[in-house]
Amino acid sequence: MAALKLGMVGGGQGAFIGSVHRMAARLDGCFDLVAGAFSSDPARAHASAAEIGIDGDRSYADFTEMAKVEAARADGIDAVSIVTPNHLHGPIAEAFLAHDISVICDKPMTATLAQAKSLLAAAEASKGYFFLTHNYTGYPMVRQARQMVAEGALGNIRIIEVNYLQDWLSEAPAEDNKQAKWRADPVQSGGGAIGDIGTHAYNLACFVSGLRAASLSATLSTHVDGRMVDDDARIALQYDCGAHGHIWASQVAIGNENNLTLAVYGSKGALRWAQEDPNVLWFSELAKASQLITRGGAASNEAASAVTRIPAGHPEGYLEAFATLYREAAEVIATKVGKNTSIGSLDGLEGVRFVDACQRSTQNRASWIDLR
Amino acid sequence: MAALKLGMVGGGQGAFIGSVHRMAARLDGCFDLVAGAFSSDPARAHASAAEIGIDGDRSYADFTEMAKVEAARADGIDAVSIVTPNHLHGPIAEAFLAHDISVICDKPMTATLAQAKSLLAAAEASKGYFFLTHNYTGYPMVRQARQMVAEGALGNIRIIEVNYLQDWLSEAPAEDNKQAKWRADPVQSGGGAIGDIGTHAYNLACFVSGLRAASLSATLSTHVDGRMVDDDARIALQYDCGAHGHIWASQVAIGNENNLTLAVYGSKGALRWAQEDPNVLWFSELAKASQLITRGGAASNEAASAVTRIPAGHPEGYLEAFATLYREAAEVIATKVGKNTSIGSLDGLEGVRFVDACQRSTQNRASWIDLR
Amino acid sequence: MAALKLGMVGGGQGAFIGSVHRMAARLDGCFDLVAGAFSSDPARAHASAAEIGIDGDRSYADFTEMAKVEAARADGIDAVSIVTPNHLHGPIAEAFLAHDISVICDKPMTATLAQAKSLLAAAEASKGYFFLTHNYTGYPMVRQARQMVAEGALGNIRIIEVNYLQDWLSEAPAEDNKQAKWRADPVQSGGGAIGDIGTHAYNLACFVSGLRAASLSATLSTHVDGRMVDDDARIALQYDCGAHGHIWASQVAIGNENNLTLAVYGSKGALRWAQEDPNVLWFSELAKASQLITRGGAASNEAASAVTRIPAGHPEGYLEAFATLYREAAEVIATKVGKNTSIGSLDGLEGVRFVDACQRSTQNRASWIDLR
Amino acid sequence: MAALKLGMVGGGQGAFIGSVHRMAARLDGCFDLVAGAFSSDPARAHASAAEIGIDGDRSYADFTEMAKVEAARADGIDAVSIVTPNHLHGPIAEAFLAHDISVICDKPMTATLAQAKSLLAAAEASKGYFFLTHNYTGYPMVRQARQMVAEGALGNIRIIEVNYLQDWLSEAPAEDNKQAKWRADPVQSGGGAIGDIGTHAYNLACFVSGLRAASLSATLSTHVDGRMVDDDARIALQYDCGAHGHIWASQVAIGNENNLTLAVYGSKGALRWAQEDPNVLWFSELAKASQLITRGGAASNEAASAVTRIPAGHPEGYLEAFATLYREAAEVIATKVGKNTSIGSLDGLEGVRFVDACQRSTQNRASWIDLR
């Protein structure tokens, strides 16, 4: 498969996630980054482009212009990565989708539910595809877990538990911390921990279990004086089919770096996985010794093997999981197979609805919100 | 210190917890078990007594008689251990306290709040002491954690997280499983997972943090058909001083044996501990590498050292922690120091109030119950 | 079973291992400690006896007199625990065996090979039994491993790996450290790390595998200036049946408290166990997911279950394993079953021969020494 | 920095390590793969080239021709990756170095000591650079360890322990396992476990400690009938400066996937690292609680930070470490800084000398071989 041509909006100098998307796009050789609007400030945009190795004539400061010009070029981009603050995801994505350029967008989909619905409509109307990088779904052992649940290895799902703990916002961040800054602005982010990591947690629960929440009760709280968004989120969930569960997402849990853990308990068995040790998956069956399933190992299944690059014992990490989403997006774009099932926009809407419901529940002392 | 004379009610043949109490009483040589009413069935009681090595004239089938006879003997027991189903704790304890015999009682204190209040009054009126074996508080690293919190090593407490996960009730137990049987009867147990292990979780949170809950919202649920008590409990808690937290206690979490974990997060640092790996304690301070504090190791503090028997790297376990409570009870009984602060009955009442509040909250769709 | 009467030689005030033996003897109620020669200094001996709760008329300062007097009493001791420095094990044990009093002796058996042979002869000639407390063999998961190897779960044994790492002698110890002091004297100890912990490592390898070394090549070394015994020992071993292996025992490995680990690799499977996490055993079979076998769990076998006191997830530790040896000794003494197979003296001789061979190999630049 | 042009010899369809090198070369955007001789069979070579996306006119079946043609092109390759069986490393590397094309070669350097010396001379005579991919040295926590040792954090180094355990050769491999096949041929591989993974272990010990072995005693053994190379290697080492250590490399240790572990013990502290959990490093200082240093965390030093791509808690893995070597090679090639210190050929020679010494020691019953 020849490499597709990729553009990027956001992700200039000093941005963490832009660099991640670029490495992820490159790892499997599916995309060549050829254009970008790395900043809305022209000087910064062009400096970043030069540093990244983008030709000057394909460096833009305005995403609307970028979409128009690239769409008109014979060698225009096949897809664009959006790695801006959350409130810009919607407008930018719609600009590219309007030109039938596929979009690979960082999560959450948008900062508000209204933006998400508008974007969903735009995605449905476009010949381009919309992909959302819920990157933790790219880990082989997460795929393994999903297949095992679908095959009934756990029996009926009873309990789904996701914790996502970080500590980098335990104190007010330094003034010049760019990432912390826009996340702390409710308008730009649409929420704090709930939007930044809570959406990952909820998406992971749904992805592995195949279920969606029927109702939830949430408490978003803030532990640092002066902070205007939540930094700790707890959500009790009732899922379809009678399962229940809990999500705890915190950015003030000292000693936790990026400690995302998932446990799914069923009537026959259980699975446990941790993002910081992502190459293994614990599988427990009632009245048997627990087993440690390894990526690339003897017990790995088709879903895991399909996204495994190197042998067992040679750790794959965060970038590899992220790159898997890029590779899968490239395959859909190149083959045009999967439009109706194109992952992303529906999951994205579900995530924004989740945030919205958590915020409404919190305003009413953790009242139960119906999501169906 | 000469060994004290101990009696026991309950804990006959086949009982798990009776044997635990006997080993705990014996380990440090503080008690000699000399009398018992091991069953209300005379034949079983005497058979158990013979097996355990109790003289026939001090084997009883009736606890009321045992209290009266032992109180009258010159060599009568100094204390009695109560290891019966929960609903009998109150009446038995009161019978011995009425004769000024000290009581060491398995948790929870009682099956109902009314029983707990009655027992508290009886304990206050007696010259005997009342001790409740919240045995997880006997672990050296739990003592270490408590001292560190009290000394301010964590700053202001923000979050307290306790999980207590088991899987032995994931299916309906066998008919002849005596322990499972009485626990499954609401009248005898006063509750399912919430009373059996939820009370341990809540007690541990309070013991280490020095806080008590101001309000809670609970969801008790049942996953096995025909079961009449809860087997999974989730409780959101608001503590005094603005801390909040969560308890999850489950007996249907396949792959978990007795997986009790505690995490306390503050504004400056955090502590994490796990009962199945009890000899270590994780201590994290903001912007430093996390440290692994070990029982008996260089960083163990006075509170931990006071209850440490053997050097670092030589694991102490569940029985040692339990034995610490027995040793501490013996010291109070022998020295008569500590009456006003006698641990146990107030903690016991708090635990029963906790269960009661969780049950009321559940009946009203996880409504918030005020505990102050 | 009525409790047997126990005496003790050594183990007075401030001694670590004496206290361990007393707790181990007491835990299962098999022994009552009634007599002792806790020190060769009369004042210290009687002070220790009083502290421990031994009647004055059964406190001795001379072990020869103790043996004679106790043998003559109608209520004399059934067995004696020896917890002195190594070079006294032989003379003391022989004194009691000469009066047909059974001996429970801390390891190693003796400080020299000549002493060991003499003691073996004395044990064979006595009506008393000789037991050596290779206490790590008392752990349930070690028993599990031994049964699994014997049943062929691993196929042909290929490799046996034992590491025993400590760090308490990384620097010259304080002058008043009694335990460190006699161990550092070659005459009293018979060796450094090799005798103190190397013998445990070798015994564990033999116990689990059922094999004995055919030849070995050893390097004993010393890392602290002025130390007169080894503090680090490495031994390559050829076992009967073609298996080979390695032992590394060190007391200068900073960061290790009492880190004894065993791995046995066969043609079909492997087992791995660690003393600091003793309640689990890893079992790996070729081309299958590894399994975590737990003490008391579904996969525990008869050998493990026979020495398991409390349910899975409730950790048993070092004292429980030690107590198992005391209980097993009590059963042999009480039932007089097992004389011909009486564990201990042959294993003890094997251990002293191992130390002797390691010392001779070291003197000749790790030359291979034949042990058969 | 503009991407350099890369060629590859070996690594065609079905090869594991060729694919690894391609991903590693691509991840940081430092190299574009533009030419290759992926097989000596023309049909296979061209099929692989097409699959990989190499233009037909730059697909070669003969490495000598490739070196000549590429050297003559204006847009010829700057460097070539060699990923063939070991016995071909020398001839191929020399062919490219003769044309002043830099070489990035998989380890070990060569299959024989004579080849290594010849290649070293060729590297010194060339304007091209020679790099050897001892890829485990690319892990951030390995760099962290090296800096800490160099800075004296451990005091004087006493003990260096490296284990490298795999199980994929526990039985005779399937006939069609290409990787296993050439490794099993002494002529192609130059050795079994000792060359394949033993060299990694020894290199890691030297890289982190800054020491080289003064002498060694080795036992290479074979556990599978009919196998013509070793599958298990044990080496006792005396290092410069009085440190000693041990390497155990095995490919028949069931339950181990790619379990490379390093421990370095000094007079003041110790470090422990495991390749399967590569983002953390244990640091223990005498009489302090052990610390867990994390990649990207607060305690990471300059050496680690320089090769860290993404934040703490977002695992980097094997490919990232490998990519670091490619990036560093690109920097040397592009800047021409570092010729005299060009890493690789001296380390490579050291590795081949190590293998040679191990084989000679084994032939003489583990006799000590002097390496200085």
In short:
Chain A has 2 domains: 4-133, NAD(P)-binding Rossmann-like Domain (Rossmann fold), CATH 3.40.50.720; 140-310 and 351-363, Dihydrodipicolinate Reductase, domain 2. Helix content of chain A is 36%, strand content 24%.
Would you mind describing this structure in some detail?
The structure is a homotetramer of 372-residue chains. The first copy, chain A, is of the alpha/beta class and 372 residues long. Chain A folds into two domains: 4-133, 3-Layer(aba) Sandwich (Rossmann fold); 140-310 and 351-363, Dihydrodipicolinate Reductase, domain 2 (2-Layer Sandwich). Chain A has helices at 16-27, 42-52, 63-72, 89-97, 113-125, 140-150, 178-183, 186-189, 193-209, 302-305, 318-335, 345-363; strands spanning 4-10, 31-37, 79-83, 102-106, 130-133, 157-165, 213-221, 232-239, 244-250, 259-266, 269-274, 280-285, 290-294, 369-370. In chain A, the strands form two sheets. A nine-stranded mixed sheet of chain A has the order 13-12-11-10-6-9-8-7-14. In chain A, helix 4 links the parallel strand 3 and strand 4 (102-106). In chain A, helix 5 (113-125) runs antiparallel to helix 12 (345-363), helix 6 (140-150) packs across helix 9 (193-209) and helix 9 (193-209) crosses helix 12. The longest helix of chain A is centred in the C-terminal third of the chain and has 19 residues, at 345-363. Chain A is globular and about 65 Å long. The interface between B and C is large, with 38 and 38 residues.
